From TrEMBL:
It comes from the Bacteria. Residues 133-255 form the GFO/IDH/MocA-like oxidoreductase domain. PANTHER family: D-GLUCOSIDE 3-DEHYDROGENASE (PTHR43249:SF1), UDP-N-ACETYL-2-AMINO-2-DEOXY-D-GLUCURONATE OXIDASE (PTHR43249). GO terms for molecular function: nucleotide binding. This is Putative dehydrogenase. Residues 6-119 form the Gfo/Idh/MocA-like oxidoreductase N-terminal domain.
Length: 337
């Protein structure tokens, strides 16, 4: 049996739990270290997981030389940590967004294109059975020419959510709110399904939570290559976390995703194409895509080709949402797109 792949996790916040669980569940992978800028959090994770803990990611790279690093930090730290990992010869799997500004994301994307290591981006909803089924249906031509579509994210992020991790509510660290932190996954799917945007017209605002700087509601109209138009809505002001809804309509039929079920309606009636398995617990609406993506990243580590979800893949949704922020007058003076 070959030696396990050594890996480390930088950033021990909420999302790291999903990564750590996937690592623990993969017999080909061995966790060798953790890092967080908060000394207490780093120490607690070190004790709990039985591996060395660090407060500086470069020190971790120098001491442990992991083969892979998972970047699960606040958004503004994604690119600096990833760039340092590439320089150290460490494969990178970074959480979304690829960067908290387009300029930083483009820097990482450019570096990743010529890197000797793999650089992957976590867009786990592309692994959902319903997402795969949408892509298959579109490839089959069952809908005919696409006219347009819609998608919506109705979630809840009350004040305690931001109080627990204040960076989430700040432009300088989060890079935005509902769009960049929660709805970016659904926005990514919409672009993946319908195509690259040609024009973007959006409006984002903070309507319900005056304890944060960033937006909690947004509406975007996107005209795509070839003519389709989609409308996207996201809110963090709902009373609960509802299932994502998405619809794509063509000349010959409509695909509808609701409550984790994908249905096709055409001249033959309505039939179910796929369902998404539901996770357990308070964050069940996150789905199960993380583990599938992480396992796939490790399975492809020895492939000569880049991992299919590169930083370049994440630029589309990031440009759309940051453009919406700019159009809404939300970006602080001097902040790059």
């Amino acid at each position: 049996m070959s030696e396990p792949i050594t890996t480390a996790v930088v950033g021990i916040g909420d999302i790291s739990a999903v990564h750590l669980a996937a690592i623990a569940g993969n017999p080909r992978v061995r966790l060798v270290g953790v890092c967080d800028v908060d000394p207490e959090r780093a120490a607690q994770a070190s004790e709990r997981l039985g591996v060395p803990g660090f407060t500086d990611h470069q020190s971790l790279f120098d001491a442990l030389h992991p083969q892979v690093v998972h970047v699960t930090t606040p958004h503004h730290q994604h690119v600096p940590v990833a760039l340092d990992a590439i320089e150290a010869g460490v494969h990178v799997l970074t959480e979304k967004p690829v960067g908290h500004t387009v300029a930083e994301a483009e820097e990482l994307a450019e570096r990743a294109r010529t890197a000797s290591v793999k650089v992957g981006l976590v867009l786990q909803n592309r692994y959902n059975p319903t997402s795969v089924a949408v892509r298959d249906a579109l490839a089959s031509g069952v809908l005919g020419p696409i006219a347009g579509g819609r998608a919506s994210v109705w979630w809840s992020r009350p004040a305690p959510y931001y109080a627990a991790a204040p960076w989430r509510g700040r432009w300088s660290e989060g890079g935005g709110g509902a769009l960049i932190n929660q709805a970016i996954h659904t926005l990514d799917l919409l672009l993946w399904f319908v195509g690259d945007p040609v024009t973007v017209r959006g409006k984002a605002a903070n309507l319900a939570d005056d304890t944060i700087e960033v937006e909690d509601n947004a509406t975007i109209v996107i005209d795509h290559e070839g003519g389709p138009r989609t409308v996207f809505f996201a809110t963090n002001s709902h009373h609960t976390n509802a299932a994502v809804e998405l619809e794509i309509t063509g000349r010959d039929g409509t695909l509808t995703l609701a409550a984790g079920e994908l249905r096709l309606t055409d001249a033959d009636g309505t039939r179910m194409l796929a369902t998404d398995a539901q996770a357990d617990g308070a964050r069940s609406y996150w789905g199960l895509g993380h583990a599938l993506l992480i396992d796939d990243f490790y399975a492809r580590l020895d492939d000569p080709e880049p991992f299919w979800l590169t930083p370049d893949v994440g630029l589309g949704a990031l440009r759309v949402l940051r453009t919406t922020y700019a159009q809404s007058g939300l970006l602080p003076d001097g902040t790059p797109l």
